[in-house]
Amino acid sequence: VLWDDKGQPVAVIEAKRTKVDAEKGRKQAQLYANWLEKEFGQRPVIFYTNGYDIFIWDDHQARNYPPRKLFGFYSPESLEYLIQQRTTCKPLDSVSVDTDIAGGGGRIYQLESIARVTERFSDKHRKSLIVQATGTGKTRVSIALTKKLLDARWAKRVLFLCDRKELRKQARNAYNEFVNDPIFVVGKTDKKYQDNSRIFIATYPGMMNIMDRYDVGYFDLIIADESHRSIYNVYGDLFKYFDALQVGLTATPVDMIGHTTYGLFGCEGRMPTFEYSLEKAVADGHLNPHEIITHTTEFLREGIRSEKLSDKQIAQLEEQGIDPNTLEFDAKAVDKAIYNRDTNREIIRNLMEQGIRDKDEQLPGKTIVFARNHKHAILLQNVFDEMYPQFAGKFCQVIDNYDPRAEQLIDDFKGGDSSTNDELTIAISVDMLDTGIDVPEVVNLVFAKPIKSKVKFWQMIGRGTRLCENLYGTGKHKDKFRIFDHWGNFEYFEQEPPEGEPSKSKPLTQKRLEAWVDLGKAAQKKFEQGSLKTIAKQIQEQVEALDENSIAVQEKWQTRARLNDLKVLEQFAPQTQQQLLDEMGPLMQWVDVRGQSNALRFDMDIIAAQTALYTNKDKLQKHWATVVQKVDMLPPHLAQVQQQGEIINQVRDADWWNNASFAELEHARTRLRGIMYLMDGEVSPPPEPALHIDIEEDKSQIKTDQRDSKIKSVDFKLYRQQVQGALEPLFDNNPALKKIRSGEPLQPRELDELIKLVLVQNPNVDLNVLQEFYPDATVTLDHILRTLVGMESSAVAEKFASFAAQHNLNSQQIRFLDMLKNHIRDFGTVEMAQLFDKPFTQIHGEGITGLFPDMSQVMQIKQIVDSLGVSMGEPAL
């Protein structure tokens, strides 16, 4: 029993023997807790363990969580807070969301996001996953959620995790703006402020390095930004170690999220706790749509090949001292194995001439150019400086990890004004600006490289989606951004299947263990029991070397204990072989083998030779050549090498090698592996440097096209902007538009005249095209036009968001309001009777009254709708 300073029991621990299942102590621990509660008036937290498996069971009626596994014990302070929460924490639905942080500006989806997470927590689930498109306020949602849990006393300390220092800085600034609680930034804030801080902000690797300084109950809520599959693969221990409520945030579209991410945040059936997609955000006016301009040259499409070059291009190459006959590069190699300066001139020229301009219409607005690598980025910057020397090298700069000033350059890019030549306006990025960076002013994205990851591709597009008010002057907001695709990336992803789970490369230690297992199988088939005993001993040493402090190793403690038994390994049963490969193999990554890579590779060379003894002796010569190559790289003047001279001479001898036994090869391995770190140089030849040329692209072969995004809301938003631009001059005087705005029906003749008038003003705008964006054939064109000229979705959303925040609605009620808002936005009208029919019965079978039993709330909703000029008629109640 663990006691506090007042002599009250705070925990009871039932400890069973290691060979006994910890679950057998569960009922016994509960009986102890019952007695202690009766005797002292305070129910202790229950723990039961067998020394490896540790379970916590906080079964007090105020909390009443089911048992869960831990990887350590709570500290006294954390235990006391856990008990304190039983009386101090409030129901989450009784604490309102701070709408100054989230939900403002008509962002009703943010309120629904928070409601869904808090409802899940209230239902005893401890993990949630929020999927929100880039630019829709994931950080604001996390801050509002943090504040709600702190105010409700559900949390004392909150940990916000992100994957880069720049994002850590952004998170700190955002939390500072809205929350008054002390903030501790891991790696930046003085450690003396740690104990008094309530909000911790850290990068994943930064927190991994210091994780063991804190007890498992130190944090009550963990928010993981950009929760994608690498978190699970690399930083999963963080989420297993800390016994906290956990929320994952990601902008990755639902169909691209890996199965492991769903599993990490407890989402069964690949269904996140809440989703707000790019398509919805654009339709609601919370993100900007994008135009796509494809712009390719002959070299980018077809590569650079000698037989395709013109006489002029051949002459240019010869002037540069390059033999044209040596050029044979496919399109994939351009800007990777061969750099052509003029190809990159075309990329820069296209941006400068076709990019969306700044408020003065003089220069391109904020732009991110995604380069292939550092060399390519430097080439693009040099080409820009060569073509536009008047900018004196400040307007366009490279931002990547090679520059120690990268963080300052990012700040310059965020704060600069594109209307002056002295400010950083075009950022050439290599990975640093691909994800997470928030620069709302960006209006141009240049894909100067091919992208193969669909997830990363859409994260990169997210750099331009954010709204930016008054970008072009007072009242002139950013309404779109432009993407220049020089590599056919959109076409590629339309053809490719959805992205699957990436195959993870195996570490050398795992490959070596697998090689030992294969050797053991081969020896067993030949009934070589002596060899099998040697192999079993080697495998046992590797199993013993696993770090018991690793959570991944702790999870497999029973299998590890079984496979640490030499008798089990010597028997080498099929079950043992499979457990070694499936369970112990992946754990080998946690063995510290720094500085031993040459020794590990030498082990595998000899193991391969030993396996060949039992499977195919013809392969021995190949393995002999590999081993000789390596021992010949050992410096003979060193004493350590000279001491093994006899063995070295033996393995160099082909005759000895051909007649060597398993035991003799094993003796050579054990004697020589310890000196392999002394090898001079590398076995593989260094890669050839990339070729730099400058030949003029054939201008007649440059192709530029504007294409649809194939995202309905994006394409509709862009076309809608064109329609609104054509109708705007007609608002005050056109009788047909006046009737549409007042809700009066149009005669076919009036509508036809309006269509013809708009076509005269702008031949590219045909009002009939609008109907292609509506699946319901009964929706008439005058209804569609009314949504464009008579209603603004932002005004509709603002009214409903205010109502939702005022009444502290649950997620189902918020979802109904969102559906009603979208219906008004899309159809311009709604009848009261419709709210008792599909699609409004999807959430509750009784429609509006099933979700809002309080009739005063129903009448308030009616008043909101009527105030928007969309009559709902008399309530049919």
Widest sheet: strand ordering: 8-9-7-10-11-6-12
Q: Main β-sheet: number of strands, strand sense, barrel status?
A: 7 strands, parallel
Calculate Rg over CA atoms.
33 Å
Structural class: alpha/beta
Structure description:
The protein has 877 residues and is α/β, with parallel strands linked by helices. It contains 36 helices and 23 strands. A seven-stranded parallel beta sheet has the order 8-9-7-10-11-6-12. Strands 18-19-17-20-21-13-23 form a seven-stranded mixed beta sheet, with helices on both faces. Helix 14 links the parallel strand 18 and strand 19.
Any key phrases for this structure?
single chain; 877 residues; alpha/beta; seven-stranded parallel sheet; seven-stranded mixed sheet; disordered C terminus
Question: What topology emerges from the helices and strands here?
Answer:
Elements: E1 2-3, E2 9-15, H1 26-40, E3 45-49, E4 54-57, E5 68-70, H2 76-88, H3 108-122, E6 127-132, H4 138-151, E7 158-162, H5 165-178, E8 183-185, E9 199-203, H6 204-210, E10 221-224, H7 229-241, E11 245-250, H8 259-264, E12 274-276, H9 278-283, E13 290-296, H10 298-302, E14 304-305, H11 311-319, E15 328-329, E16 338-340, H12 341-354, E17 366-370, H13 374-387, E18 396-399, H14 406-415, E19 426-429, E20 442-447, H15 454-461, E21 481-485, H16 489-495, H17 508-525, H18 529-544, H19 551-555, H20 557-563, H21 566-571, H22 574-584, H23 597-615, H24 620-631, H25 639-642, H26 645-652, H27 654-659, H28 662-672, E22 691-693, E23 703-707, H29 712-727, H30 735-741, H31 748-761, H32 781-789, H33 793-807, H34 811-827, H35 848-851, H36 855-867
Parallel strand pairs: 2-3, 6-11, 6-12, 7-9, 7-10, 8-9, 10-11, 13-21, 16-22, 17-19, 17-20, 18-19, 20-21
Antiparallel strand pairs: 1-2, 3-4, 4-5, 13-23, 14-15
Helix pairs in contact: 3-4, 3-34, 6-7, 12-13, 17-18, 17-22, 17-23, 23-24, 23-28, 32-34, 33-34, 33-36
